[in-house]
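Reviewer 2 asked us to include a model.

Predict the structure of this chain.
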Amino acid sequence: MRNLVCSRLMSALASAILAFGISIASLSTVAVAQSAPAAQRNQSIDAFFANFTAEWVRNEPDLARATRYFSGDEQDRLERQLTPRTRAQRQARIARARQALGELTRFDRAVMNETQRVSADLMQWQLQSIIAEEPFLDFRFPLNQFQGVNISLVTTLAVVHPFATERDAENYVAALGQVDERMREAIAESRRLAMRGILPPRFILRATIEQMQRFVGTAPAQNPFVTALAQKLSASVADAKRRQLLGQADAIVQREIYPAWREAVALLESQVPRATDDAGLWRFPDGAAAYAHFLRTSTTTNMTADEIHELGLRQVDAIQTRMDEALRRLGRTGGSVKERMEKLREDLRYPNPQSEESRAQIMRDIEAILRDAQTRAAPLFDQTPKSPVIAQPYPQFQEANAQASYAVPTADGSRPGTFQYPRRPETMTKFGLRSIVYHETIPGHHFQIALQLENPELPAFRQKLILGGLGAPIEGWALYAEHLASEFGWYENDLEGLLGQLFWEEFRARRLVVDTGLHAKRWTRQQAIDYGIEVAEVERYVVNPGQATSYMVGQLKILEVREKARRALGDRFSLKDFHGMVLRGGPLPLELLERQADAYIAHAQR
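Predicted model (structure tokens):
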């Protein structure tokens, strides 16, 4: 997910278990006192999962809102709040993880059933990862153009918050009243980091300032905090109540939120003269260790920056060879592969891309692609989600810096899966559009995350990604979904569409090179752009180190274990069964995924 699933609704996880001297295999050796009967211990681990998860969510109002974990008064109470954006909140989260990890080690994996055992292994991996982040808390900029508090607050309310009832709307307005406090917490954190010499690059500061100025550059009635309420408010709400709620939201934006945003802009403007244009984490003390941590978190492997960089270079070369062949079949033979691909992208651009007609047309085309994908995917999967998925554009203030993304549905049906697309001029092209939709919706993120959410056999922390997403299995699956469309003829008689798929696959390979180039090899922003990555993407990697490496590393592992299963099972191999094995358990660290695949192969061979 070009973000959210992961970057917007899920916190980034930390390093793989091997980084802390604990192997996956060793997890099953932890024992408890042998006096308790096995059935009692099994019941206790289920109770532990449930109790831990509920307590974790109680401390994270934004997570409660996203998952609608509780009901009644407790859910209302949480939905009227916003999670604090303070260092103390993050440290408290780590303390809870450390306590829970100690409790988890009391349980004996040997007496658990398979679901319990995998769940315990996964939880231990995730808790270890959260704890391992502690030395690197200062390496995330609280205000930035891609996933800063200035973005997450808008997403949390305008996109994630439910609007099905009048009570939902009242809770929304109550939470809106906390936005200025949360923003001022981010301002204080940004000021603290600056005093330590930890500043975003100058170009990130400027991009964030411009974006935040756009946010406050419209009348409150046109601000996303107000328009989301106006557009999504249930039709059952009486007109008088509707006017009251909208009036309250308008007043909060004008009197509280806009002043807080302007205060943040003033702070960032004061930091510009002190900042440099050095882009990577290498520029900070302990930056190399921080980047290694983020790579382990994103890939769920112990691959080094050098190994990932070289993998990217090899993949770019291989994919470009396939691109050249397809371009020649189209009669496009003049110039480099890059030049020919850029010309194709331009030729497929929507006319007058800033016109309202073209902006509306691309959303209609996305809708058509999405519905066609539902039909095409049916033969390849034994189960598809019950939750619907919809497409909508980003609000205009965010378009310049946003990337296509997916937000998860709720289990109670109050919110569908949501695909958001940024309609800035450079993205207003049919080139690669099908592949983007497949990645974010069907059979990509929506299939994986919604099916996991709907699987009653999983404990709630797995169903609802309570401890955060895992980049490599989540983004790896979505990139695998793009590849699957190409493998199974979805681009038959559509060479231009196939080239779009190859473009995005090569783009993920280039990400391996650029992310590691920026943060480990001292590349400049311009070097990354010159390598073939657009400005908004480069700037995304700068503020979210390591995340861009998750896609291809995850995809290659899924393809590897699929081929292993195909060779081992021969005629007994079923693609539907393989997909079911990967999806029903939800995203797992790649080592755990491989172990699951081995168990699937052994079962199918009986």
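The first strand starts at residue 389 and ends at 393. The longest helix spans residues 239-271. We have added this to the supplementary material.
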